[in-house]
Amino acid sequence: MRRILAAALLAGGLWAAPAAAQETPASAPSGAVEQVTSFAAGSNEGMKYRHLWLAYGAIWLLVFGFVWRTWRRQRDTDTELEDLRRRLVALEGRDGPGD
Amino acid sequence: MKVFPALTAVATAGVLAALYMVFEYAPLEADMGVVQKIFYFHLPSAWLCYLGFLIGAGASAGYLWGKGPKWDLFALSAVEVGLLFGAIVLVTGPLWARPVWGVWWKWEPRLTTMLLLIIFYAAYWVLRVYGGESEGVRRFAAALGVFGAPNIYFVNQAVKMWRGVHPDVIRGGGLAPSMWTAVWVSLAALLLVFALLLTLRYRARRDERAARLLRRRLGRIGGLS
Known about the structure:
The complex is a heterodimer. Chain A has a domain at about 45-100. Chain A is about 70% helix and about 0% strand. Chain A is built from two helices and no strands. In chain B, about 80% of the residues lie in helices and about 0% in strands. Chain B has eight helices and no strands. In chain B, helix 2 crosses helix 5 (about 135-150). The two termini of chain B are about 35 Å apart. The interface of A and B includes residues 44 and 80 of A.
């Protein structure tokens, strides 16, 4: 038992001496990979991607909405114009040249 | 009539090229990361919003000068397209600001003056569209369109004059050359979209006026049952 305790003290001493002599670097050497010690919530990388797609989605939604509304107005106006011109031609044919 | 398919094809090709430049060619911004790519459509949209309002103001001045109702319709169409690009600016701006500034909106000079400019021309649009077709309304709206234009100068100078937090990379010169290329390609593409939308909108407004005149004529000669 004493031998085991002595061996443990020797091994501990051999390990502790250089460990105690080791200087703790003020910062990690350049190029070294930092040790991850915690996983904290709060990174907004996901939000950045989400907002990017939302922004480009909104742009095309607005542009195509505008085109669609304009196209519908044009279609309705074309139909109305055609109808009005037909009526005018019919009236002028009945009454002769109008004003 | 063949102008529209050709313009649509060119504008589509331009937009696809712009998207390639934004997402593949332009580098990732060091601090803001991927969300900065909103900038490539946000900035040209702001410029095209100004362009729409400036064309609206010019055409309104022409109408007041006695150039005829087509100038009034062209002014209205240009302001409508300008408002569309203004809406794009107002939507993409907060989506960019939230991850970068931590807030959706700040009452800082550039944002506030831009919002006021858009509200001003929205007022013009409401008056012109819902105010009826009388000569008085058209002239009043045209005057409003002309008086709104100088505000563009204050929006443009707001960062310099009142020092806000809005980025000012144009005067600051802080844009990498490849980022500039992406900006110019996006601007060219959106300019084509602007021209297409303005042409479509003006044609719709012009035909609506023709229908209105025809209705009036038929009403006079008893052709409307």
